Amino acid sequence: MRGAAEPQGPVVVIGASGMDLIGKLAGPLSTGTSNPGRLRMSPGGVARNVAENLARLGMETVLITAVGDDPNGRQLLDLAAQAGIGVDHCVRVPGARTGAYLALLDEHGVLHAGVDDMRVIEGLTPEHLRTAEAVIAEASAVFLDANLSEASITTALELASAHGVRVAADPTSRNLAPRLRPHLAGLWLITPNEAEAGVLCPRPIAHAQLQPAIEAARQLVASGVQIAVVALAEFGVAYASARESGHVPAVHTEIADPTGAGDAMTAAVIFALLHEIPLDEAVRLGASAAALTLRAHGTVAPGLSLELLYDQLR
Questions:
Q1: I need a labelling partner for 138 at 20 to 30 A (CA). Which of 51, 159, 257, 300 fits?
Q2: If you write DSSP's letter for every residue of 70-113 in order, what string do you get?
Q3: Residues 144, 47: contact at Cβ < 8 Å?
Q4: Which pLDDT tens digits describe the chain residue by residue (314 residues)?
């Protein structure tokens, strides 16, 4: 691994967690009736997924999320702790249901439709984030997802800025991406997909076009982001910083389940950059992490490690 620096302090990961229920069809969809297929349930949520990937890569990681005071919430936090994630600053919201995500995949593993219910994240208030200021102050980086309320995003950025801590963000969805638009100048790293980048950029980008995607990353940098990494699914990843820009092709792999692939990419890029690995190589490790997750029957690839990421690139 190139880059000798060892990050000082944990990565503090702030945002959504929930239980994923994923159904994969055995054949073409027949509407209006039940369809044969396979169902799985596993922990999920953008922030929680990023946290688990970071922990499996060996990073000290602290998760700040909100769950309901219910069995799913207790299970989520227990499993996170077992994965090596710090959960002392998570909040359990009385009377609320833990977040959930329901996805229907076609027989090829491509998302047909999804529904998420992350209303419990409203319990992750600016006041609660301020109680975690000490751990944020000691962080090597903060990651947040746009499931957070606009007020909580603002507070997280203010706390990080007050202590000189770099902030990475994931727009999460096309609908939630506008919550990050006022804060682009305060971000160290942003990892949208092409649809989310289109919402954030002053000028639109064409679907699955490499040069426009690189231009979108450059637009985000021009808007104040230090590093922009735009995921293009099977077309790879475009990236830009003030000094360089480029494209990394996707690592070709079979798709068992796309859930969590983007979160794995984000975590691997954060890990690599914090270890001072050059940007192009960091993005290649991100593409490798996404491919490993795509072929895993779960939200996080089992056995994830830096060695596994490099082995796949070779």
A1: 300
A2: SHHHHHHHHHHHHTTEE-TT-EEETTPPPPEEEEEE-TTS-EEE
A3: yes
A4: 555 567 889 999 999 999 999 999 999 999 999 999 999 999 999 999 999 999 999 999 999 999 999 999 999 999 999 999 999 999 999 999 999 999 999 998 888 888 999 999 999 999 999 999 999 999 999 999 999 999 999 999 999 999 999 999 999 999 999 999 999 999 999 999 999 999 998 776 655 556 788 999 999 999 999 999 999 988 899 999 999 999 999 888 888 888 899 999 999 999 999 999 999 999 999 999 999 999 988 899 988 999 999 998 87
Q: Which DSSP symbol is given to 95?
A: T
Token digits of residue 176: 């939630």
Q: pTM for the full model?
A: 0.94
Q: What is the CATH number of domain 13-165+251-313?
A: 3.40.1190.20
DSSP assigned state of 100: E
For CA atoms 7, 9, 10, 11, give the dihedral sign.
negative
Q: How far apart are CA 124 and CA 67, in angstroms?
A: 9
- Two structure tokens written together for 144: 């947040």
